[in-house]
Amino acid sequence: MSSSGSSSDTDGTSRSGSVPPQENSGAQPPSETQKAIAALKPGYPATALINVLLQHYNIDFAKYKRNTKISHKLLELWGRIYDAILVEMDKVQKAGDTPDWNAFDKYTGAIAPFEEELLKLEAILADNELPPLPPNDEVTPLIVFMGKWVEDRQKFIDTGKNLDEAHFTALFPQALGGESIVKGAIRDDDSQILGELTNKIRDDPMLDTDIMGIGPDDKLVTAVKEKVQAIKTAADALAPEDCEKMGKVVFAVMAIYIPFLAHAKNAEDAHIVSKEVWDAAKTFADQTEAFAQKSSSIAADVFDGQWKEYETVLKKKIGAFAMQMVTLMRLASQARRPFFGRTVGIVRMWQAISLIFVNTRLLEDTEKVFTATHTEVTSFTVDAADLDKRRKAYTDLVGLLKAEVEKYNSAKWSEVQKAYETSAKVDDEHLKKYQEFIKKNKQAADLQAGA
């Protein structure tokens, strides 16, 4: 990510930060992540926090399945800023008898804002490790998935814009151009997702005859599939500066994909195979193609209103309980290992048992447990006793759910309990593997170095 440097200045000033690379004694060559981290200049104690965070993101970004191009580009931009800060620090250290106030002002003005930029992205890491395409699921979780995709994408765009602020641009003879660079990378990510979505819709096995209440000449599924191909053709002509429009187009194609995915999840859902839903999907596909044109005069807020009309049809059967479920599903993204899998497992419990009973008090208790976990488990170095306390809270919650559900449908409980236990096992195993990874890769992943 940045050029390598020595562990001390020529005047003997000691630096701290990254761990010196070790000999690669095994058969496996170092990974790109390890090489990138080993290439980080050690820095000074004042930049140790930044150094650790850059190592952290090098490791986590390598796991991403979505936003891959933009995350890689951000690492490059961050590396340039980090190197530029060190250059100014070196100037101050080597200034001799004449203080270099210009260099001092540049690096001291950049460190705190840079730390803030790196720290505030932590919350979205788990989402980006998920596949970029929505899975087979019900309507509500699919809409939540889409909303999180938009939120994560915008956070990356905002980060790029922030890199053009004065405290960063002052480090360079010319503007860094963070926003422009980020939009170019976002464009590549968007194009990849749109292409994959288009292919998935084209190849979906759903047929026109699967739709209820249509005439012999109605070809709604075929029409939607063809229209999605036309949307992609229009979107391919958009430029990186059309970033906002491109994001809305990808979001819209995800929305058009919902009836296909929901049908694959539950082919017996009469609402999803209704002519009303597919008429709405066809209308929204037409509207999306018109909006996607580079020369389109359709305003973004008008298109947002068209989406809301389509969303209303999709969610026609959704009531108050479903909105509570949306809240729980959103909280799942705020849980890190070893509680992400447990949280998802409990959300899935609620999804499975909602047709059997609804206990509002228990729903509130569930939300409290999720919220407390988000508040108390804020890193991977939380004390073991605190982790055990949170695990017990989840175990107690599962016990309450079991007591209620077994009154109504013990067979259903056995199914969801098994899924929860599997998720909990993955939680603990992945955290353990992560901790072992940190221990075994000191030169690349000692996230406590210099902290």
Overview of this protein structure:
- There is one protein chain.
- This protein is an all-alpha fold and 451 residues long.
- The chain contains 18 helices and no strands.
- Helix 1 runs antiparallel to helix 2, helix 6 packs antiparallel against helix 10 and helix 13 runs parallel beside helix 15.
- The longest helix has 31 residues.
- The radius of gyration is 25 Å and the shape is flat.
- It starts with 31 loop residues before the first helix and ends in a 6-residue tail after the last helix.
- 33% of the residues are buried.
Name its key features.
mainly alpha, 18 helices
How far apart the termini lie comes to: 21 Å
The counted number of beta strands is 0
Query: With helices defined by DSSP (H or I, 4 residues minimum), what is the helix count?
Result: 18
Helix content: 55-70%
What characterizes the major β-sheet? none
**Shape designation:** flat
Radius of gyration: 25 Å
Low-confidence stretches: 1-25
At a glance:
With 451 residues, this protein is an all-alpha fold.
Task: Write the topology of this structure.
Layout: H1 32-38, H2 48-61, H3 68-93, H4 101-120, H5 125-128, H6 139-162, H7 166-169, H8 178-203, H9 220-236, H10 243-265, H11 275-292, H12 300-314, H13 320-332, H14 340-353, H15 360-376, H16 384-405, H17 410-440, H18 442-445
